[in-house]
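Reminder to self: tokens first, then the designed residues, so the page reads top to bottom the way the pipeline ran.
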């Protein structure tokens, strides 16, 4: 349960960031205010959350800059038909940047787990219940204006699919 709560927290924060983008109670540190209200965060926890968020934002900025530069380089290399050795070196840099991003996410989640109480983490998990499948199944299809199609991830595959209208 604690792990699930920690895994969901970035999604909570991401969703709250979307609220900011829509003009709802925004600002760089507003996520902590929303958390304080919604999950009964103390002032001490609020300060620790702000510091953790700031540290992650700073680390992510450096990693994103590195990733962006590597992706531009890779694009140029593909266009210029670079050697496999050059492509491999750039691909390795991109893989290392992704690994760094995951490590920063893990560090942030560990910080949040150490800051929040089990009940606060549980409340976040419950709050996220409806958002769990945001990019899977019918939700994404609905947003995109169409169906996802049959097959893996659609909840419909093989002969038993009611949407399947052909014989094999």
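Designed residues (168 positions):
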């Amino acid at each position: 349960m604690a792990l699930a709560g920690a895994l969901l927290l970035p999604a909570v924060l991401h969703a709250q960031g979307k609220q900011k983008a829509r003009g709802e109670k925004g600002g760089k540190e507003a996520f902590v205010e929303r958390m304080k209200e919604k999950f009964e965060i103390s002032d001490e926890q609020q300060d620790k959350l702000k510091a953790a968020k700031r540290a992650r934002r700073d680390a992510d900025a450096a990693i994103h800059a590195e990733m962006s530069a590597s992706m531009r380089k890779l694009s140029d290399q593909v266009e210029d038909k670079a050697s496999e050795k050059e492509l491999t070196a750039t691909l390795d840099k991109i893989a290392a940047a992704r690994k760094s991003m995951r490590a920063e996410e893990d560090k942030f989640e560990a910080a949040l787990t150490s800051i929040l109480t089990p009940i606060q983490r549980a409340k976040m998990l419950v709050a996220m219940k409806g958002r769990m499948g945001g990019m899977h199944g019918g939700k994404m299809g609905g947003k995109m204006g169409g169906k996802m199609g049959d097959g893996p991830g659609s909840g419909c595959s093989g002969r038993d699919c009611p949407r399947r209208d052909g014989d094999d």
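Confidence is low (pLDDT under 50) at residues 1-8, 18-22, 135-168.
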